[in-house]
Amino acid sequence: MSAPSDPAAAAGQAPAPAAASAASSSSGLTFKLHPLVIVNVSDHHTRVKAQAACSGDSSSSSGTAAAQPPRVFGCVIGVQRGRTVEIFNSFELVLDPVSGTLDRAFLEKKQELYKKVFPDFYVLGWYSTGSDVQDTDMQIHKALMDVNESPVYLLLNPAINLSQKDLPVTIYESELHVIDGSPQLIFVRSNYTIETVEAERISVDHVAHLKPSDGGSAATQLAAHLTGIHSAIKMLNSRVRVIHQYLVAMQKGDIPVDNSLLRQVSSLVRRLPAMESQKFQDDFLMIIQEQRAYVCSTFHNIRNTMTLSS
């Protein structure tokens, strides 16, 4: 979920004191970060950025400078064994863009769903995007302390820096420090290492070496992919039309009734969701939005690639 860069300011609240510190963590915890988390956060940011670009907001249409892409927020999950914290996966969070508060019902539902699939995983903290810690981040951090009393904060910097060799990912812990005579909770940096399993290494290596086999451009590869999907949909439509015409002819009595065939058609139809249900409509619209975002983000990536290579 995206939100303005300063939700508290948008709500007319006074921002909290600066919550970032250049100090290193003294907790002694060892953090291991899996590539899937970085891919998820990057994908979340890319989708939100592409949706914002496709929506054509009023600020860009009025000729003003393009606004910064909205920040995204989510939870990181994994396991903690002794002093070792291993972050395996993540999921998105819904944040109120006005008040900057979390949707607790959505968070609890996502926790319940992930517990069914990964019973050993727990919410370890949360993630966001940006070049640095914002003053309002501590508000979200404290809101998650009832889920994990000492959550971690993973910050991904989406800005492209060709001279930077390290990953643009920083992990923060929160510590209580006495500042100007009063105790305050601040963010402190923590070191981490990238941990992978065999399946992740194969997937990352495949993506890193992915390129058109015929030496064509990324646009050519995208066009071929969309053409393949279009051909598959056309074939499916033609075969459904044949079945429909056959059933109409059978209903009119032009051809004899074949009970065996009718049972097969009935079994096939039962596998499809009820198109009149609200759930189907919501899921269908969600898929359409995701596909639009994917196409937009792909074209943005193509444009960025052409810009960097020129």
UniProtKB/TrEMBL annotation:
Pfam families xref list = JAB (PF01398), MitMem_reg (PF13012)
What keyword terms does UniProt attach to this protein?
A: Cytoplasm, Nucleus, Signalosome
Stated name of the protein: COP9 signalosome complex subunit 6
The answer to keyword Nucleus applying to this record is: yes
The terms describing its cellular component in GO are:
COP9 signalosome; cytoplasm
Q: Which domain of life is it from?
A: Eukaryota
- Kindly give the PROSITE patterns that the UniProt entry links to this protein: MPN
Report the subcellular localization. Cytoplasm; Nucleus
* Annotated family: Belongs to the peptidase M67A family. CSN6 subfamily.
Q: Which InterPro entries match?
A: EIF3F/CSN6-like_C, JAMM/MPN+_dom, MPN, MPN_CSN6
Annotated MPN domain residues: 31-178
Q: What does this protein do?
A: Component of the COP9 signalosome complex (CSN), a complex involved in various cellular and developmental processes.
Instruction: Identify the main location.
Output: cytoplasm
Q: What is the lineage of its organism?
A: Eukaryota, Viridiplantae, Streptophyta, Embryophyta, Tracheophyta
